[in-house]
Amino acid sequence: MMSWFWLVAGLVVVALTGVACTGGGGGESAAPAGVPPTSLTQSDGGEGGVTVQVTWLTAADLEGDADLTDAAASYDAASYLLLRVRMDTHAGDLDSYDPVAGSELAADGGTAQPAVSWLSLSDDAHHRDGVLVFERPQGTGSVELALRDLADVAQRVFRWAPPPEG
Length: 166
What we know:
Elements: H1 2-22, E1 28-30, E2 41-43, E3 50-56, H2 59-63, H3 66-71, E4 80-89, E5 103-107, E6 113-114, E7 117-123, E8 127-135, E9 143-150, E10 153-160
Parallel strand pairs: 1-10
Antiparallel strand pairs: 2-3, 3-4, 4-8, 5-6, 5-9, 7-8, 9-10
């Protein structure tokens, strides 16, 4: 009787671990429509087994982190927008994803612009961390970052409305 208990308990743990680590498949991931984010950091729901967290970097962020300061030293904050992107997965390999080719930024619903550079802070196959650099967008409405084709998710959208200052 006791061995059945442990067998069932083990199966429940395996099932819950599988759900937590695999996420949903395909489609799009987006911030909820009509609800502007209030945080500098936006996260998705972990679709395709990859969780993405994006932080709009300010001058204070750069001052408080030597790695960020060194990586971003050649980009003037008045001319460039820096977005820290963290990607985490427990299945698959993030090395094959090119953040520059897979991303674009649009302000006020205007024409999307490609990233200028990816400043890598960590290129671990399961935990990538770095800074996407864009020319600073014009406008005072919303700013959207789209990451395309990451872990079989057509597009993940991160929105700041209005965009933070700095």
